[in-house]
Write a structure and sequence with these properties.
Blueprint lengths: L1 E4 L7 H8 L4 E4 L17 E4 L7 H9 L4 E4 L9 H7 L2 E3 L6 H16 L2 H9 L17 E5 L3 H13 L2 E5 L5 H5 L3 E2 L2 H7 L2 E4 L13 H6 L5 E4 L8 H9 L5 E4 L21 H6 L5 E3 L8 H19 L7 E3 L3
Parallel strand pairs: 1-2, 1-3, 3-4, 4-5, 6-7, 6-9, 7-8, 9-10, 10-11, 11-12
Antiparallel strand pairs: 5-13
Helix pairs in contact: 1-12, 4-6
EC number: 1.1.1.28
Organism: Streptomyces rubrolavendulae
Pfam family, one: 2-Hacid_dh
Length: 331
């Protein structure tokens, strides 16, 4: 089977090519799947897409008209896919249901410590041979309270690191994780968690119920000197409300690896053209904010697992099998 892979990163391409060699034909594109690029898939029964692909109704209909029957997304999240339309069109949709939770959890802590200890500001200064400490005062994590919104596999890995720091652990989730309980985590309501936490980290999926989980009211409930980290999905945070809070001088630091309007921006070089997203541009002017481009998952181990799972998804489809990765089975 020939597979057309959209949004393939430079580091990812050789991993995909080695994995698919001898199994399926593979053609990699560095462009993302959008309404404009969807016609490129004509004649390909299977496409593989990245997390920022547009798989709304119009794109899916274009793919189906061109003969595509399988969408194999190289991510766990699938909020970008109109599953109802895929089902209507009789398309199979599969995702990667699991990859290294440590990749995201460790990166979330990287963001937390970077904004806490003003690492980016310090690095910029020392490159200019400015070795002053003014404005670089951070805080010990030991003894402080961390609030973990979402305690699944990634949230648990994040919690284990927090436990190693010697922090007080608060959690919020629909279902409690016994492993987090064993570490000493106390499960509380969202409002109590936000009000008590020195560090808040998001590890929940993006659904209709979690969209803007941290809205203006939720942000107002947080401590003025709290640190906020989001390495899950951008839509969990109301960015306009966050900018307003930052303009009011709130929060010791904010680390964001995701942004609610990141599609078409993240994983693309805009250094020459700039961006026309005023909210993102304003957000990045704050000295206590660190924005990275949805790279928390991007480790050798995690990408290797994603590639292997994508190959299995394509092979399962070709051989008529169905796994736990299938979101919409063949019609």
């Amino acid at each position: 089977m020939d597979v057309l892979a959209f949004g393939v990163q430079t580091d990812e391409k050789p991993l995909l090519e080695r994995a698919f060699a001898g199994h399926h034909g593979l053609h990699c594109l560095d462009v993302f799947l959008t309404e404009d690029t969807a016609p490129l898939a004509a004649g390909h029964e299977a496409v593989s897409t990245s997390v920022n692909a547009d798989l709304g109704a119009r794109v899916l209909r274009t793919l189906a008209a061109g003969g595509t029957r399988l969408v194999a997304q190289r991510s766990t999240g699938f909020n970008n896919i109109d599953l109802d339309v895929a089902r209507e069109l009789g398309m199979t949709v599969a995702r990667v249901s699991y990859y290294s939770p440590y990749s995201v959890a460790e990166f979330a802590w990287t963001l937390a410590m970077a904004v806490n200890r003003r690492v980016v500001r310090a690095a910029h200064r020392t490159r200019d041979f400015d070795f002053r400490l003014d404005g670089l005062l951070g805080r010990d994590m030991r003894g402080r309270t961390v609030g973990v919104l979402g305690t699944g596999k990634i949230g648990e890995a994040f919690t284990r690191i927090a436990h190693g720091f010697g922090m007080r652990l608060l959690g919020w989730d629909l279902a409690e994780n016994p492993a987090c309980r064993e570490l000493g985590m106390a499960y509380v309501g969202k409002e109590e968690l936000l009000a008590a936490s020195d560090l808040v980290s998001l590890h929940v999926p993006l659904t209709e119920k979690t969209w803007h989980l941290l809205d203006a009211d939720a942000l107002a409930a947080m401590k003025d000197d709290a640190i906020l980290v989001n390495s899950s999905r951008g839509g969990l945070v109301d960015t306009d409300a966050l900018v307003a809070a930052l303009r009011a001088g709130r929060f010791a630091g904010v680390g964001l690896d995701v942004y609610e309007a990141e599609a078409g921006l993240f994983h693309v070089d805009r250094s020459l053209t700039g961006v026309d997203d005023d909210t993102l541009a304003r957000l990045m002017t704050f000295p206590n904010v660190l924005v990275t481009s949805h790279q928390a998952f991007y480790t050798q181990e995690a990408v290797g697992e994603i590639v292997a799972a994508t190959l299995r998804n394509v092979t399962d489809y070709a051989e008529g099998r169905r796994s736990e990765n299938v979101l919409v089975p063949a019609g």
